[in-house]
Fold Zinc-dependent metalloprotease.
Amino acid sequence: MPLISRNALQVVFGVFLFLLISACSNTQKISVSSTSATQQQVSSEFDKAIENSVTYDGLFTVYQDTTDGSVKLQINEDQIDQEFIYFGMSSNGVLDAGHFRGAFRENKILKVRRYFDKLEFVHVNNSFYFDNESPLSRASAANISDAVLFSTEIEAEDKENGKLLINADPLFISESLSQIKPTPNPRSRPGEFSLGRLSNEKSKYSEIRSYPENTDVIVEYVYDSPYVTGSTSDAVTDGRAVSVTFQHTFIEMPENNYKPRFDDPRVGYFITQKDNQVSTSATPYHDLIHRWNLVKKDPEAELSEPVEPIVWWIENTTPTGFRETIQNATLAWNEAFEKAGFKNAIQVKVQPDSADWDAGDVRYNVLRWTSSPNPPFGGYGPSFVNPRTGEILGADIMLEWAAFRSYTRADDLFTGSFDFFDMHESMDPRYCSISQYLSEDRQFASSALLILDDAGEEDIDGLEKQAMTRLILHEVGHTLGLNHNMQASSIYSPEEINDPEFAAENGLSGSVMDYHSINVNSDHDAQSLYYDLQPGPYDVWAIEYGYSPALDDPEAEDARLEEILSRSTEPELAFGNDADDMRSSGNGIDPRVMVRDLSSDPVEYSADRIQLISTLLDGLVEKYGTIEGQSYQELRNAFISIMGQRARQTTVISRQIGGVYRDRAFIGQEGGTQPYTPVPAEKQREAMSQLSEHLFAPDAFEESHEVYKYLQEQRRGFDFFGETEDPKVHDLVLGMQVGVMTHILHPSTIKRITNSRLYGNTYVAADVVRDLTSAIFDADASGNVNTFRQNAQVEYVKVLGVVLESDQHDNLAKSAALHNLQYIRGLMEDKGNVNNETMAHAAHITYLIDEAIES
Ligand SMILES: [Zn+2]
């Protein structure tokens, strides 16, 4: 709702104002106080201060002046020193400013304290736990700093009624409660956009809502700058005046019988992390899992409805064709809750078009849709909690239409900036990339359907419904408290996954919280599931751990939970989250915990996928190059989605080399193994051999030759200005190759290869590096070298040179690098009768090696 303009209020008053506000908001008990001095005597300083204000009664009573829009906040005496939950969310933003609609930003405990004639807003530290029975709890404040975020003079006090009033503009039209403007990044590049200064003049209230249990103040922050500081996206209208709308919500601390449940390393919940300061345990953790407060209506019944179900609203922005699929996918979680004793734990309703509430209202859990320029995510399922207990109080799911739009990262693929190697979501573990994965995979599968089977709309529709189901299952899973499980896709064999009957019964993986590869059969008639369509065995088990009702007796309860956890060694319950997964080189150790992989034999599965990719590349021109009357853009997009898959699959294969399986079973747990077991040497060698064949061999990119001359992007305005539009195929191929060689030669990989020899690894660093050298050099050692291989060989020699000089690699890695550089130099000396190009190449390699060794 826009700020009520000053002009409107100067002209009309009273009744009209009341109607205006009522029409735009469902806030309770709005009234205009003291509309006329004759009607109501100004009885006190307090009343005078709020004269001519609109009143929003609720948890905190808020007064907004009807002349200038300024806001005053009433704090009751009994609210002083009480804890409140503060929750901050971007209501709207531009990504250039680090904000986007629905981004949950802050969830903390606030207290209002009185200091003589002032009130202070204090952020209370919640990182430590002191058992009140321990005398140490008397020192619980020692060396722990609460943060005084804001302090202001009390403007008026009504002692009789215990009411205090402050001018709230400096509190809200400022960044006191929550930092809005991002901290400058010391590594920001010249020309990068940054917000100007906060303008007190232009910033204003968008909306105020107050209810008995929560008060929302929504502010449009305007950042001003005399000139534009850097390049912006089209979403920014004018870089000199950029708005971010931010919602501040105060929530009453719930008083209920909710009992926290604690985290365990074997199951993956989001947590509020706290250290137990009085414990002498080796793991003094008091980490609260995030979960909803489900209580059985009938505590005696094995299966009961909850007193308060989790209610989801499908926002009225949702494309109608998908609403049923979204509803069914959300409700599919109910089956998991049945194992935890709850019937109909989740309900789904559709927000009517005429709804008088806003999806930003924290009392509603809403599945929301946006179609943003440059979306930072494709789906995002955040929840906010009571930081004292971990109880989830509300959640939203932000869905991006980008997941179902065409894949448009074409340029990056040819300029070498294409992100072959998925970066970890750095900002917040709740950020979720599932939608980008689904988008890429869905387009790949569409191309496969078209090329292999000439598939019609019905087939594509079926594929999209599965993708949507999977997206919703995943995001709803987040809002139930579950974090990612990137190991779940490793539990079934390739044969099982490709068996339609098996897949229909068991699904493809252990959890919908994985980012596994889409399952595409090269034989369309034998196509099993593309994606899981219901929560997997891990999900059901995790919900049982989190939600099954507690026993009253603490000891019996501990034993009951331990019994559930003791099942963690069952193969279907395998778990590893983002912190474990190997998508970025240097992160993770266990190749089973990986994104974009599938099956218990990811090397075989990926090699199969690469075969399929070859077939598709062979058929690409025939299928897409014959659609008359359109440009080659669609052919180009299909090529990119197919080649993107190829990069993903070789990355998956590479993770076996130097891999170590890790087991988080507790000591004595049935089915547990030692914590660390190296990947068997033959599996590592098999991965190396597949990489040699599909990534480095002289004919590895043979099949795509026919397509290169068609890879044209459709011209748009002057978009090619400063660029050259011809496809940079060599950059594309080299990008894939370098990604794999730098992973294998990453300091962490190569150190792990040596350290894991102490507990069984037999594929030693010297052999790994020699095998990689062989894959890149041996096939054409004495003959002519093709252009892809020339690139790979030069780049590999450079990488070995870096290893030799690096202070992060161990000595064994350096020895292997030196030895292999000498070996390669020998190969170059032995070049026989080769063409001019290969002679030049050999001279280049020899020069680089001499530089590396002699410098
Ligand atoms: Zn996710």
Residues 782 and 831 are 5 Å apart (CA to CA).
